[in-house]
Amino acid sequence: MATASKTTSASSKSTSRTRSSAKKAQPAIAEFDKDEELHAYREMLLIRRFEEKAGQLYGMGLIGGFCHLYIGQEAVVVGMQMAKKDGDQMITGYRDHGHMLAMDLDPKGVMAELTGRRGGLSKGKGGSMHMFSKEKHFYGGHGIVGAQVSLGTGLGFANKYRENGNVAMAFFGDGASNQGQVYESFNMAELWKLPVVYVIENNKYGMGTSVARASATTDLSQRGASFGIPGKQVDGMDVRAVKAASAEALEWCREGKGPFILEMITYRYRGHSMSDPAKYRSKDEVQKMRTEHDPIEQVRARLMDKGWASEDDLKAIDKDVRARVAEAAEFAQTDPEPDVSELYTDILL
Ligand SMILES: Cc1ncc(C[n+]2csc(CCOP(=O)(O)OP(=O)(O)O)c2C)c(N)n1
Ligand SMILES: [Mg+2]
């Protein structure tokens, strides 16, 4: 007990220093080189095109249950993917297709899971919100808001226990950030110095409620302050800013200093789920984000400005990406449904 409180107070001194300097210092954006820009462009475009196709298949009645699209938020997972090391884990909520693609999961397996087919990542039995791949270090896919925060803390505990040098990245939303289990997790993670980056994807809404209407304090990066966890607000629409902040947070965790909070300021263009008429915000608000802050358009403009890619080069990338997505969609419609006997497998009794 005495040791624990000593460690905690020592850490809170050092972390509060880091926290204030992290908040004040707005470092110049770390520029990307040509390869990084092209990589970010391709990866974000894959997520965008995949999600557009998923939306179409949903509209055609081919996807049952819920389907939450990630369009607009692509820079968050791609920037983090560019900073992480092999072995680092990701865990998230139900808005999870982009995270899976960023973790290098086959688009065919993701799309076939959405349509409930045999070749889906959960054998067609999990659907949009429940997919996993231990091999690729992706731990779901969770429909219970906030559940992934405590589970992600457990991943961090396992990393520390096994001394494997890996970091768990637990993603959750602005809405989830008001949940009790989030703070129980923060406390334990800081007390035991667990390697967890908590990534709050603040897309401004939890279903139809804006963050300002639901949260007593809206600087979510400071939600770990009472535990001594450093936090940083990041422009989540700029993949370069995301990568730089992620690298810093991951390094902090890898050095054994405990958890780190990144609040990604982002925006979802589509409704909460496919069944959301989105009457709680104006079309102008969405349009302004799309035209002024779109994460993919930002990279595209830089590539063109710097002469690193021509219109034709970018069209060729888009064609390639569309072909991969079309192949996934074709597979998701032709692969057979699971055998009836699968009803009795993968069940906890
Ligand atoms: C424990 C629990 N409470 C409520 C819900 C219903 N619900 C699903 S999503 C959601 C909003 C969460 O918003 P946020 O955390 O901001 O994530 P976003 O959907 O914006 O990505 C709610 C309340 C749920 N699935 N689980
Ligand atoms: Mg939200």
UniProtKB/TrEMBL annotation:
GO MF term list: pyruvate dehydrogenase (acetyl-transferring) activity
Role this protein plays: The pyruvate dehydrogenase complex catalyzes the overall conversion of pyruvate to acetyl-CoA and CO(2). It contains multiple copies of three enzymatic components: pyruvate dehydrogenase (E1), dihydrolipoamide acetyltransferase (E2) and lipoamide dehydrogenase (E3).
InterPro entries xrefs: DH_E1, PDH_E1_Alpha_Subunit, Pyrv_DH_E1_asu_subgrp-y, THDP-binding
Low complexity: bias regions: 1-25
One GO BP annotation of this record: pyruvate decarboxylation to acetyl-CoA
UniProt keyword Transmembrane helix present: no
Cofactor(s) annotated in UniProt: thiamine diphosphate
Region of interest called Disordered, as start-end residue ranges on this chain: 1-28
Coiled coil regions in record: none
Domain Dehydrogenase E1 component: 43-340
EC number: 1.2.4.1
The protein's name: Pyruvate dehydrogenase E1 component subunit alpha
EC primary class: oxidoreductase
NCBIfam families: PDH_E1_alph_y
Keyword terms: Oxidoreductase, Pyruvate, Thiamine pyrophosphate
